[in-house]
UniProtKB/TrEMBL annotation:
GO CC annotation, single: nucleus
SUPFAM superfamilies in the record: PUA domain-like
Annotated protein name in UniProt: YDG domain-containing protein
Species this protein is from: Macrolepiota fuliginosa MF-IS2
InterPro entries, A to Z: PUA-like_sf, SRA-YDG_sf, SRA_YDG, UHRF1/2-like
């Protein structure tokens, strides 16, 4: 009988003092789950690293004269990130960790007012182009060929504004020449990294199509591999 009373008392005490171990374990499990749902990070969790910024000034990891079969290869190598745009840049509105300006440009024959003399470049700004051929609608109108200017450019354009900022900051611009560039300095195929240039002048002119264009003069920095020694094709 004593044994029975002791057993009953123990059971009663256990019942009165709180939940059993299994209940406590279940309660903690729920608390942990609730904590995870509320965004509590455990000690073993590691914060995700921010995505790397695209765009930087100066030399890339590849040497001058590196050939690329496509714009995508050029982008992956970090020489010129955009796959279509000819100017890679950032403004103060989009980046707070770096001076605003242009990082790189591509010469690909897309603008009729470009002049490529190798060590000196007259580079046309962005905007005001016709992307498709437009047939004349009257006897006095003209046909617009793809790439021709059909309206005025503005220095306030995102890309033009960024490239003009390099005049003030003096940050160099990486130059890539493509096979479509109408110049003796262009490769016969693919795209080629040709080194660093600096923007020395920016002016507004009336272009070949009779519209206002932004023209940037760039000069190649000294002490770089001569352009005459650079490969012309992917197999060179």
């Amino acid at each position: 009988m004593a044994i029975n009373r002791s057993s009953s008392s123990t059971s009663a005490l256990a019942s009165n003092r709180g939940p059993s171990n299994s209940s406590t374990s279940h309660s903690r499990s729920n608390a942990t789950t609730t904590g995870k749902r509320r965004g509590i990070i455990s000690q073993n969790s590691k914060p995700k690293k921010p995505a790397p910024r695209q765009g930087y000034y100066g030399r890339p990891k590849c040497p001058i004269g590196t050939m690329f079969a496509s714009r995508k290869e050029c982008s992956v190598a970090g020489v010129h990130y955009p796959l279509i745009a000819g100017i890679s840049c950032s403004t103060s509105a989009s980046r707070s960790d770096i001076d605003p300006g242009a990082f790189s440009i591509v010469l690909s024959g897309g603008y009729e007012d470009d002049v490529d003399d190798g060590y000196t470049i007259l580079y046309t700004g962005a905007g005001g182009q016709s992307n498709t051929s437009v047939e004349p609608t009257t006897s006095t109108s003209t046909t617009h060929q793809p790439g021709s200017q059909v309206e005025n450019q503005s220095i306030k354009h995102y890309f033009n504004h960024a490239l003009r900022l390099n005049l003030q900051t003096e940050h160099p611009v990486r130059v890539v020449r493509g096979f479509k560039n109408k110049s003796e300095w262009a490769p016969t195929e693919g795209y080629r990294y040709d080194g660093l240039y600096r923007v020395v002048k920016c002016k507004i002119i009336i272009g070949k199509s009779g519209h206002q264009v932004c023209l940037f003069q760039l000069e190649r920095l000294p002490n770089q591999r001569p352009l005459e020694d650079l490969p012309k094709s992917l197999s060179d």
